Amino acid sequence: MPVEIESPVLEMRDVSLKLRRMPVLEGVNLELAQGDFLAIIGPNGGGKTVLLNVILGLLTPDSGEVKVFGMSPKRARGRVAYVPQYPRFDPTFPIRVIDVVLMGRLKRGLVGGGNPEEDCQRAHAALAEMGMADLADKQIGRLSGGQLQRVLIARALAVNAGFLILDEPTASLDPQIAGDLYARLKSSSKEMTVIVVSHDIWVISHHVKTIACMNRRLHYHQSKEITEEMVETTYGCPVDFMVHRHTHRVLEDHHEDGAGLEGVHDTEPGGPGGIQGKPDPEGESH
Amino acid sequence: MLEALQSPFFQRALLAGLLASVACGIVGTYVVVKRMASISGGLSHAAFGGVGLGYLLGINPMIGATVFALASGFGLGLAYRRLRSSLDTLIAMVWAVGMALGILFISLTPGYAPDLMSYLFGSILFVPVGYIWWVVFLDLIIILAVLLLHKNLQAVAFDQEFAEVMGVPVDAVLLVLLGLASLTVVTLIQVVGVILVIALLTIPAATAQQWAVNLRHMMIEAVLIGAFCTTSGLFLSYGLSDSYGINVPTGPLIILIAVALYGASSAIHAVVAKSPRG
Ligand SMILES: Nc1ncnc2c1ncn2[C@@H]1O[C@H](COP(=O)(O)OP(=O)(O)O)[C@@H](O)[C@H]1O
Ligand SMILES: [Mg+2]
Fold first, then answer.
1. Is the CB of residue A32 less than 8 Å from the CB of residue A38?
2. Which of A55, A262, B167, B196 is the Cys-Cys partner for A77 at CB 3.0 to 4.6 Å?
């Protein structure tokens, strides 16, 4: 076996954080290697956004250790791209869509730098990937919610970073566009490590490599299997309700796709582990 | 009316107004889109504390004003990210403490404080020649800063969190922005006085924002609107004095013109926005 020399993309050891004296993260451990594609699910207020903010160095944990590319999150800045859950900006800000996407090309340092031609080309390419090429010159305040979310994703894609963090990026997207996005992320996941927070379990389970559940604690077994225990402790509701239904949906989707589904047919109904493993050819050929 | 242009006083005032409009429009644009209007008000009132100290120590009050404004600007710049929730209160305190110190220092000054009214209400008609050179210098610094830092200034104004994630040194950018805002505020005190600086800095920029498609357009429009307001304010006060013997300070006229323009612009914008367009 080849020896791993590179430091992992993300290393979190026993990370805990209280906000307003309420524990939000408790003993979180997580390690991601290059090419990992992790989905985090969990109830509202479960600390998913806070966890991402810790990885981004926007919040500092009370205890524990966070390393991104072997460095502190602040030092790793510029190598990580981010799609926030909500846009933070003022819709009356006078700026065109393309200039927002160009912010994904900002460089470290007070004066910045970069190659304007390359930046421009990458920004346009990212917009085109999100199907927004014709809206490049539109004012940001004139976009619909879904269009705005696609601009935020394009801005993160334009960074061309080795580590991409997306916080509920598909909440207001059409299912078609959401599926395309995940397929795109999966297809580039050789060069890129991805964390995505999402509630669309049945969509992401086509594409991601592993799934974790977050509710103050992170339940993660480095697999795509969502165990009964994980769901019960994170959502506090019967497994039936969550996993079985979603697995069922996934299976249905596969049948409709109709191609190359070897792995799926011998899956026990209700055995969520069965959805993992086999690549989905439909997903990659968009 | 045009004979006003022959008066060297008037020429100097006109030039000062035009030059100050450049600083005002550019810095005002960032202040408005970053929603820092109340900070600029705090800075001008903090500067008044420095004016008072200047009187008390017998030095040029504008030097005291500059020191006070810069100190409060940097202080608020550092507090900006750390005290999100209590920032408003802090601004109000800086505002009130500046004013209180100014009044206290002036009352402690033996004799009487000449030109006190000009700091409170502005006196563009009586600016010294040195002021012109100072504004030229300030305009150059501001233009240079924008040429070098515009991407980062825009990014921090637009989405500070994302700028931070990208590795932009947000604190340094905020300090540059507040430093420029402090110097601009002190400069505008000569034009409209401590109390009205916030209006001159923000109203032309807010008017420009209604029409601009990007920050560069907004800056250019804000500079032109500011130049129009100061120029027409000067002519109006000259005309009122010359034809009717009514002597009013120029500052309030400039601000009222700016507000009228903002109102007209809003009305037109509302009508245009309703009409269908691509
Ligand atoms: N800046 C903050 N200050 C105090 N509490 C916060 C802050 N941000 C989040 N919280 C709290 O932390 C918990 C987790 O929030 P969050 O990570 O946003 O949940 P989600 O899993 O829905 O993304 C919530 O209880 C929220 O109220
Ligand atoms: Mg969240």
1. yes
2. B167
Statement: residue A244 has pLDDT above 50: no
Yes or no, beta carbons of B151 and A112 under 8 Å apart: yes
Q: A38 - beta bridge partners?
A: A195, A210
Domain count, chain A: 1
Contact B213 A139 (CB under 8 A): yes
Domain extent at residue A122: 10-236
The four Cα atoms A70, A73, A74, A80 give a dihedral, to 10 degrees, of: 100
A18 ligand 1 Cβ < 6 A:
no
Query: Does residue B167 lie within any of the structural domains?
Result: yes
Contact A106 B155 (CB under 8 A): yes
User: Which of B121, B131, B111, B106 minimizes the C-alpha distance to B51?
Assistant: B106
User: A193-218 pLDDT, tens per residue?
Assistant: 999 998 877 777 778 888 998 989 99
Query: Residue B95 maps to which CATH number?
Result: 1.10.3470.10
Beta-ladder partners of A80: A163
Secondary element (H or E) of residue A234: helix A228-235
The predicted model scores a pTM of 0.86
Burial (CB < 10 A; 0-12, 13-18, 19+), residue A273, is middle
d(CA B223, CA B190): 17
Residues in B closer than 8 angstroms to A110, CB to CB, are 149, 152, 169, 172-173, 176
Residues of B in contact with A82 (CB under 8 A): 162, 165
